[in-house]
Known about the structure:
The complex is a heterodimer.
Chain A lengths: L4 H27 L5 H75 L9 E9 L7 E4 L12 E3 L4 E8 L4 E5 L6 E6 L4 E7 L4 E6 L11 E4 L9 E5 L11 E7 L8 E5 L4 H8 L18
Antiparallel strand pairs in A: 1-2, 1-12, 2-5, 3-4, 3-12, 4-5, 6-7, 6-9, 7-8, 8-11, 9-10, 10-11
Chain B lengths: L1 H21 L1 H4 L9 H10 L4 H18 L6 H16 L7 H25 L10 H27 L9
Helix pairs in contact in B: 1-3, 1-4, 3-4, 3-5, 3-7, 4-5, 5-6, 6-7
Amino acid sequence: xxxxxxxxxxxxxxxxxxxxxxxxxxxxxxxxxxxxxxxxxxxxxxxxxxxxxxxxxxxxxxxxxxxxxxxxxxxxxxxxxxxxxxxxxxxxxxxxxxxxxxxxxxxxxxxxxxxxxxxxxxxxxxxxxxxxxxxxxxxxxxxxxxxxxxxxxxxxxxxxxxxxxxxxxxxxxxxxxxxxxxxxxxxxxxxxxxxxxxxxxxxxxxxxxxxxxxxxxxxxxxxxxxxxxxxxxxxxxxxxxxxxxxxxxxxxxxxxxxxxxxxxxxxxxxxxxxxxxxxxxxxxxxxxxxxxxxxxxxx
Amino acid sequence: xxxxxxxxxxxxxxxxxxxxxxxxxxxxxxxxxxxxxxxxxxxxxxxxxxxxxxxxxxxxxxxxxxxxxxxxxxxxxxxxxxxxxxxxxxxxxxxxxxxxxxxxxxxxxxxxxxxxxxxxxxxxxxxxxxxxxxxxxxxxxxxxxxxxxxxxxxxxxxxxxxxxxxxx
Lengths: 299, 168
């Protein structure tokens, strides 16, 4: 295959060297996660590629949407029928919900509860994704200049999408909830018990509840518990009823609320930090510092 | 001179492939799985490059894929270097015809994706435990067989202008 033994040695040596370099780089990156030079290189690459990717996206998106529209025409009639049925069902549920809302308002008034605050958010367009189907990341056209910071929750109109895990001045990378390395603290609304959902690489997440005393039923809503993300964001719905055996973890699947196959726009929640939850839980521990006027000596 | 020119052309093709992979194939994903276009471009380029240049192009393509992806740096670099090396070893057999080329593209893509899953798991990415792993291995390999015709044509036209033949 190679003309001479010397040549073969050179190629094999280069091959082995590159493999060794790859392993060294990977080890170095894992060991220095989110603090090393690798993240600086990632940000630099993203800054360089972003303008080209945005340009390509501007050309590609309308073309893809056009073909999407054509392929969807055939299914529109069935979709209309299905939507009509859904509207009737939702109208019925709306009437039921209105009655429930009145009850909740009364209960809130009785217990002097505050309704959940409207959190500040920034809308952003998705312009790119990772370089392979193994990657569970999306890139958005908002960055530090728009108030985006690492760790912030990213949502769409249906629920939680993921969190910001890298950011440049004008772009940010969102690590999706479906990534196997992502875990989120959650609460099952039906039972009010907490657990953790972990990505599996698909639209199904794994729910582990370590201290569950009540079974969960199919369709139960799973929301964020407020430990890392703002509380109450819909994460998904329990796919299969499950019960915890004595001393065993309750484990079941959760279907994500967000539709990961088609994410065009997202919202980044910028008005909340995990520290807010800690401050709210123990407000009395924070004493305001006393101020002494050096001229008068009065407080 | 020609060798260096081909290396530069190969790097240009890899750059275009990365842009298309992260934009076009972010939206066009038949059965929710995108083709492995960058991997296919490395295979297409390695057919015409000197062995050392093919390895360097594979490694560079991998590093850039790692930088724009979400996993640890170096994983795609290892994978694409191995795929480039395997292509250099196997390219003598492509004279067997279109079916041999298609089978080669399928096997190299499948093996590359599998290698990435294994190396990724070693470095904590949890890829091999995914319930849809078979789809991640099979579909990109199938899409790459379909895309091989245009991509191989482009690589032939740009890197061997004087010997234009279909995919060879």
